[in-house]
Specification:
There is one protein chain. The chain is 20% helix and 31% strand. By secondary structure, the chain is an alpha+beta fold. The chain has a domain of 94 residues: RutC-like (60s Ribosomal Protein L30, Chain: A, 2-Layer Sandwich). It has a six-stranded mixed beta sheet with strand order 1-2-3-6-4-5. A hairpin with a 2-residue loop joins β2 and β3. The protein is globular.
Length: 146
Amino acid sequence: MRYGSYIPVGCRTRHNGQVQHLNPEGLSRNPPFTQVVTVSGPVKTVYVGGQNSVEASGAGDIAAQSAQVFRNLQTALAAAGARIEHVIQWKIYIVQGQPLEPGFAEFQKVWGRRPNPPTITGIYVAALANPAFLVELEAIPVVPAE
């Protein structure tokens, strides 16, 4: 089910594109932010806001939290009609002092042997919005036009 879907005035592109904001079932809803924003034209570009281990309540080490992050990411992608292989860019925010390798191992499990991996930016931060969270992930997939 789609919530908050609309086409803002002046947001149509010259290719009849549209902007759509989605807050899919299974992800938290909060008035200050949208979970997923899609931009449609000849291709559909999707902007997935920072996903963390919200269902796991931040419990576990960075590997366990990364696994939950990827489950949440796939829920967000599915709501926008995208799949993991459509992701062209990820930004990973990691709390300082946490090892990168366990989180990257989870990425390898999810990505598998797919070709054309996305660009990845890893950023160490002092803290995330919830002090229990150790990792957060943003994604930008591009879905081919139908």
